[in-house]
Amino acid sequence: ANTVSEQITPIWDYIVTLYLIGVIAMTLYFLVSLVRLALFILKGEHIKQDDCRIILHRHNSVAPFAWCGYIMMPRRDWYEFGQMIVCHEKAHIECRHWIDLLFMQAAIIITWYCPAIWLLRNELHTLHEYEADSRVLASGVKREEYQMFLIKKTVGARFATLSNCLNHSSLKKRITMMLSSKPTGKARVRAFVMVPAMALALIGLATPAVSAVINEVSAATP
User: Fold this and answer.
1) Strand 65-67 vs strand 70-74: parallel, antiparallel, or unpaired?
2) Which band of pLDDT confidence, cut at 50, 70 and 90, is reported for residue 174?
3) Beta bridge mates, 12
4) What are residue 165's DSSP bridge partners?
5) pTM assigned to the model
6) What are the φ and ψ backbone dihedral angles of 54, each rounded to 5 degrees?
7) Residue 47: which of 80, 12, 72 has the closest Cα?
8) Are 87 and 166 in contact (CB under 8 A)?
9) How distant, in Å, are the alpha carbons of 23, 105, 125, 222 from that of 91?
10) Angle at alpha carbon of residue 60, lines to 56 and 61, rounded to 5°
């Protein structure tokens, strides 16, 4: 019995070590993303428009994105599509989508090994883009004009997962959503409530104490 126990213990040590390495790696990635965001803000050209803070940078390959009250875009995009980009990214800011992404990033750090959490993050980005598109169209922008703008801006590298990039979601899905009937308020609320609820459930299942209780209940159930 002691021999079996001695064999099992090193295996768990390896698993825990691998898990901690993953947590450290994801935490470092998060911190690097924050540093990159800070550099964009510090080095960019600042423009104040209404209650928005627009940051113009020289990285033309990076798609426009919004984070924590800031709208960041290449200087070239500002002159070509400035107001349309501001309208879209301002919707993300007003909905405080960056807070959702912070919670999601925390869940990813804890449950990085779970494929479902990565799929959940993609779904969260998609929901954010649907809501931003809906707000842009509700502001009076013509649907055809906005769709053409999205087609032109599908190219470009995406920034860190902490932000909502303009080209983050499937363009085909977004255009289809615009053409479909507008979802009801209750459906939208259910969608946004399910995302954090599923994230919390995944975190709970990943906790050893919770998993142990679930296993005991399952074993006791005939």
Assistant:
1) antiparallel
2) confident
3) none
4) 65
5) 0.70
6) -100, 130
7) 72
8) no
9) 32, 21, 13, 52
10) 130
Q: What is the pLDDT of residues 105-132, one digit of tens each?
A: 999 999 999 999 998 988 888 888 888 8
Closest to 12 (Cα-Cα) out of 213, 208, 209: 208
Report residue 218's pLDDT band, with 50, 70 and 90 as the boundaries. Answer: very low
Pairing of strands 70-74, 52-57: parallel
For 40, other C-beta atoms within 10 Å of its C-beta total 20
Average pLDDT over the chain, rounded to an integer: 77
CA 153 vs CA 29, 48, 64, 167: distances in Å = 26, 23, 9, 7
Alpha-carbon distances of 186 from 113, 114, 193, rounded to whole Å: 33, 29, 10
User: For residue 115, what are its two tokens?
Assistant: 């494929």
